[in-house]
Specification:
single chain; 197 residues; two-stranded antiparallel ribbon; binds flavin mononucleotide
Amino acid sequence: MKEQFKPGTMIYPVPAALISCGKDEEEYNVFTASWTGTICTDPPMCYVSIRPSRHSYEIIKRNGEFVINLTNEALARATDWCGVRSGRDFNKFKEMNLTPAPTQVIHSVIVEEAPLSIECKVEQIVPLGSHDMFIARVVNVLADRRFMDNETGAFKLSEAKLIAYNHGHYYKLGEMIGKFGWSVQKPLKGKNTKHRK
Ligand SMILES: Cc1cc2nc3c(=O)[nH]c(=O)nc-3n(C[C@H](O)[C@H](O)[C@H](O)COP(=O)(O)O)c2cc1C
């Protein structure tokens, strides 16, 4: 049996990303967004939905550029704080000891401490109601070398201790329970398959 709720935003978990913006130091700002995600693989496209009342809204609209910085356990407090304080009143980089570092392709700023920073160029702004959806193209990705496997060149995002946002609360990620396609994978020959049916 299911209870019926009024229509609402109940797709969880979602990221709690730090969106950085601004083209020079005076303009640099960072805020938290959960209404953000991937919308196309090729070309790589993503979105962030922003209320027009946010300080960051005008900055991103003016410059047409922003960065999605993924967040991890070490950034959890800063992630919450940047989501409840405005750049109108605070230099959030300074207050949260976040390091503003240069982007490589767009003219903006990344959060150096983030495991992954995704440089985006706005292509469309879609007014939806409370939020405007900024549809953007990913033009560069900056990955923390600490999570690079020097031998294979693989990026081990699973070691970055990413966090998620679930209905008002932040969570660490739990155990890995399978990899892409595992549900249809044939048992490997010669392996102990005792536990398989
Ligand atoms: C977990 C979390 C998720 C949030 N997601 C969004 C979002 O997707 N879009 C948005 O406009 N504001 C979102 N906010 C609120 C903004 O981060 C907040 O209003 C912030 O103070 C805006 O900063 P600014 O005024 O410096 O731009 C979120 C806040 C939190 C804590």
